[in-house]
Amino acid sequence: MPEQQKPVRPRDAASLVIYRRGTQGLEVLMGRRSDRARFKPGMYVFPGGGLEAADHRVRTTSRLDDAIVTRLAVGGSAPRAGALALAAVRETFEETGLIVGKAGALHGPAPASWADYSKHHAAPELDKFAYVCRAITPPHRARRFDARFFFAYAE
Prior knowledge:
Layout: E1 11-22, E2 25-28, E3 31-32, E4 44-45, E5 48-50, H1 66-71, H2 78-96, E6 102-103, H3 115-118, E7 122-123, E8 130-136, E9 145-153
Parallel strand pairs: 1-9
Antiparallel strand pairs: 1-2, 1-5, 3-4, 6-7, 8-9
Protein backbone atom coordinates (compact mmCIF):
# COMPACT_ATOMS: atom_id res chain seq x y z
CA MET A 1 0.00 0.00 0.00
CA PRO A 2 1.52 3.42 -0.98
CA GLU A 3 2.52 5.72 1.83
CA GLN A 4 0.30 8.80 2.30
CA GLN A 5 2.02 12.13 1.69
CA LYS A 6 1.74 14.77 4.37
CA PRO A 7 -0.64 17.54 3.22
CA VAL A 8 0.96 20.80 2.06
CA ARG A 9 0.35 23.64 4.51
CA PRO A 10 -2.02 26.19 2.92
CA ARG A 11 -0.63 29.64 2.13
CA ASP A 12 -2.61 32.67 3.37
CA ALA A 13 -4.33 34.44 0.49
CA ALA A 14 -7.14 36.92 -0.12
CA SER A 15 -9.50 37.92 -2.91
CA LEU A 16 -11.67 40.95 -3.51
CA VAL A 17 -15.18 40.61 -4.92
CA ILE A 18 -15.92 43.99 -6.51
CA TYR A 19 -19.52 44.59 -7.50
CA ARG A 20 -21.77 47.35 -8.82
CA ARG A 21 -25.26 47.89 -10.10
CA GLY A 22 -25.16 47.94 -13.90
CA THR A 23 -27.85 48.86 -16.37
CA GLN A 24 -28.91 45.21 -16.60
CA GLY A 25 -28.48 44.26 -12.95
CA LEU A 26 -25.64 43.34 -10.63
CA GLU A 27 -22.15 43.17 -12.17
CA VAL A 28 -19.18 41.41 -10.57
CA LEU A 29 -15.52 41.77 -11.60
CA MET A 30 -13.80 38.50 -12.50
CA GLY A 31 -10.83 37.55 -14.62
CA ARG A 32 -9.92 34.41 -16.51
CA ARG A 33 -6.70 32.67 -15.53
CA SER A 34 -4.27 31.78 -18.28
CA ASP A 35 -4.51 28.27 -19.67
CA ARG A 36 -0.84 27.96 -18.69
CA ALA A 37 -1.36 28.95 -15.03
CA ARG A 38 -0.02 26.41 -12.53
CA PHE A 39 -3.06 26.76 -10.26
CA LYS A 40 -6.58 26.45 -11.70
CA PRO A 41 -5.72 27.13 -15.38
CA GLY A 42 -8.51 28.64 -17.48
CA MET A 43 -10.80 29.25 -14.50
CA TYR A 44 -12.74 32.47 -13.87
CA VAL A 45 -11.66 33.98 -10.57
CA PHE A 46 -11.92 37.10 -8.45
CA PRO A 47 -8.74 39.21 -8.24
CA GLY A 48 -6.55 37.96 -5.44
CA GLY A 49 -3.46 36.12 -4.38
CA GLY A 50 -1.02 35.31 -1.64
CA LEU A 51 -0.23 37.36 1.44
CA GLU A 52 3.21 39.03 1.36
CA ALA A 53 5.25 40.33 4.28
CA ALA A 54 4.96 43.88 2.89
CA ASP A 55 1.16 43.73 3.25
CA HIS A 56 1.71 44.08 7.02
CA ARG A 57 3.49 47.44 6.56
CA VAL A 58 1.06 49.42 4.37
CA ARG A 59 -0.68 52.44 5.85
CA THR A 60 -4.44 52.65 5.47
CA THR A 61 -7.07 55.34 6.04
CA SER A 62 -9.15 53.00 8.21
CA ARG A 63 -9.26 49.55 9.77
CA LEU A 64 -11.45 46.54 9.18
CA ASP A 65 -14.55 46.34 11.33
CA ASP A 66 -13.89 44.36 14.54
CA ALA A 67 -16.62 41.87 13.61
CA ILE A 68 -14.72 41.03 10.41
CA VAL A 69 -11.47 40.53 12.34
CA THR A 70 -13.25 37.99 14.55
CA ARG A 71 -14.65 36.07 11.57
CA LEU A 72 -11.34 35.83 9.64
CA ALA A 73 -9.87 33.07 11.86
CA VAL A 74 -6.68 34.99 12.60
CA GLY A 75 -6.77 34.62 16.39
CA GLY A 76 -8.32 38.08 16.80
CA SER A 77 -5.24 39.78 15.32
CA ALA A 78 -6.38 43.05 13.74
CA PRO A 79 -2.95 43.58 12.09
CA ARG A 80 -3.03 40.13 10.46
CA ALA A 81 -6.64 40.61 9.37
CA GLY A 82 -5.73 44.00 7.87
CA ALA A 83 -2.76 42.50 6.05
CA LEU A 84 -5.06 39.92 4.43
CA ALA A 85 -7.42 42.67 3.25
CA LEU A 86 -4.42 44.61 1.95
CA ALA A 87 -3.21 41.54 0.03
CA ALA A 88 -6.58 41.58 -1.76
CA VAL A 89 -6.14 45.30 -2.55
CA ARG A 90 -2.58 44.82 -3.84
CA GLU A 91 -3.47 41.79 -5.94
CA THR A 92 -6.50 43.59 -7.39
CA PHE A 93 -4.24 46.44 -8.45
CA GLU A 94 -1.61 44.08 -9.90
CA GLU A 95 -4.19 42.09 -11.86
CA THR A 96 -6.56 44.85 -12.98
CA GLY A 97 -4.92 48.25 -12.44
CA LEU A 98 -7.85 49.30 -10.23
CA ILE A 99 -7.08 51.52 -7.25
CA VAL A 100 -9.12 50.44 -4.25
CA GLY A 101 -8.68 53.31 -1.82
CA LYS A 102 -9.01 56.98 -1.10
CA ALA A 103 -7.20 59.36 -3.48
CA GLY A 104 -4.59 61.65 -1.97
CA ALA A 105 -4.54 59.78 1.31
CA LEU A 106 -1.13 58.07 1.14
CA HIS A 107 1.35 59.40 3.69
CA GLY A 108 4.92 58.18 3.86
CA PRO A 109 6.84 55.61 1.84
CA ALA A 110 5.30 52.32 0.73
CA PRO A 111 6.99 48.89 0.62
CA ALA A 112 8.53 47.91 -2.73
CA SER A 113 5.69 45.57 -3.75
CA TRP A 114 3.31 48.53 -3.28
CA ALA A 115 5.45 51.05 -5.22
CA ASP A 116 3.28 51.16 -8.37
CA TYR A 117 0.09 51.46 -6.31
CA SER A 118 1.59 54.26 -4.22
CA LYS A 119 2.35 56.32 -7.35
CA HIS A 120 -1.41 57.02 -7.43
CA HIS A 121 -1.18 58.64 -3.95
CA ALA A 122 -4.10 56.56 -2.69
CA ALA A 123 -4.42 54.65 0.56
CA PRO A 124 -6.70 51.67 1.13
CA GLU A 125 -9.94 52.21 3.06
CA LEU A 126 -10.54 48.93 4.86
CA ASP A 127 -13.71 50.09 6.61
CA LYS A 128 -15.43 49.89 3.20
CA PHE A 129 -14.97 46.11 3.07
CA ALA A 130 -17.37 43.37 4.04
CA TYR A 131 -16.35 39.78 4.63
CA VAL A 132 -17.78 37.01 2.47
CA CYS A 133 -16.17 33.69 3.35
CA ARG A 134 -13.06 31.60 3.76
CA ALA A 135 -12.04 28.76 1.44
CA ILE A 136 -9.18 26.32 1.96
CA THR A 137 -7.83 24.22 -0.92
CA PRO A 138 -8.40 20.52 -0.11
CA PRO A 139 -5.55 18.43 1.35
CA HIS A 140 -3.15 16.48 -0.86
CA ARG A 141 -2.99 19.15 -3.55
CA ALA A 142 0.43 20.39 -4.66
CA ARG A 143 -0.57 24.04 -4.07
CA ARG A 144 -2.91 25.02 -1.27
CA PHE A 145 -4.38 28.35 -0.18
CA ASP A 146 -6.28 29.51 2.89
CA ALA A 147 -8.16 32.29 1.13
CA ARG A 148 -10.37 34.98 2.63
CA PHE A 149 -12.87 36.72 0.35
CA PHE A 150 -13.84 40.36 0.87
CA PHE A 151 -16.67 42.40 -0.74
CA ALA A 152 -16.21 45.97 -1.96
CA TYR A 153 -18.77 48.11 -3.75
CA ALA A 154 -17.19 49.52 -6.93
CA GLU A 155 -18.09 53.14 -6.28
